[in-house]
Specification:
Shape: elongated
CATH architecture of the largest domain: 3-Layer(aba) Sandwich
Order of helices and strands: EHEHEHEHEHEEEEHEHHEE
Number of strands: 12
Number of helices: 8
Oligomer: single chain
Length: 225
């Protein structure tokens, strides 16, 4: 899942970015409203977290502009303001949820997941299944043939992207853009390395391979008959 964070406070931004990355999210960070608008208008995100007090373009104006441009990315408004009127203004501007600072990081993650299920329930199931491979998105666990498979956060994120697109060949660029942030080096072999690790964990001990390479194009997860 790819998330945009628009937050000008360095410590808060560092805390959120690090925490989300450890949970397997790909995170892009903008430190002011105009930079956030540029990213949101040119990149694709599953969710956005936007602070209200931002330089250059405040959070409410940013959200309003995104909605005017037809950008429907689910938005969590982040603010130290906790009054009912402030919450109402955040939601009326186009926010989908409102979280007051200070907050528990676990609550932020839970709100992102709940927001995705609420905004687009058909696209946000609680489990993903391809053949005998099953991913529990709530407990963040993966099983194949009834056996639990331990994955690192980025491996989990990569497998989740593959499982959300079964039978579809995903290029290296598509994977990098969705699983890593926008500052990736297109010449890096990080995708190949992660795919190799996933194969070791997902396929090596089983008779049927699920992760396949389409030479010169990309990778696909499917149960071939």
């Amino acid at each position: 899942m790819r998330v945009l964070l628009v937050e000008d406070d360095r410590q808060t931004a560092k805390f959120i970015v690090k925490g989300l990355q450890q949970e397997g999210f790909a995170v892009d960070h903008a430190a002011d409203g105009l930079a956030g608008l540029d990213l949101a208008a040119t990149e694709s995100y599953d969710a956005a977290i936007i602070d209200i007090m931002l330089p250059k373009l405040d959070g409410l104006a940013l959200i309003d502009e995104l909605r005017k441009q037809g950008i429907l990315t689910p938005i969590i408004v982040l603010s130290a303001r906790s009054s009912v009127d402030d919450r109402i203004r955040g939601l009326q501007a186009g926010g989908d949820d409102y979280l007051v600072k200070p907050f528990a990081f676990s609550e932020l993650v839970a709100r992102i997941q709940a927001l995705m299920r609420r905004v687009n329930p058909a696209a946000e199931p609680t489990t993903l299944t391809v053949g005998e491979l099953r991913m529990d998105l709530v407990k963040r666990k993966v099983y194949r043939g009834g056996r639990e498979i331990e994955l690192q956060p980025k491996e989990f994120a990569l497998l989740e992207y593959l499982m959300r697109n079964p039978g579809r060949v995903l290029s290296k660029t598509m994977i990098m853009e969705h699983v890593w942030d926008y500052n990736f080096d297109p010449e890096t072999n990080v995708v190949e390395a992660r795919i190799c690790r996933l194969r070791d964990k997902i396929d090596r001990s089983f008779n049927t391979r699920l992760i396949h390479t389409t030479r010169g194009v990309g990778y696909v997860l499917e149960e071939k008959k």
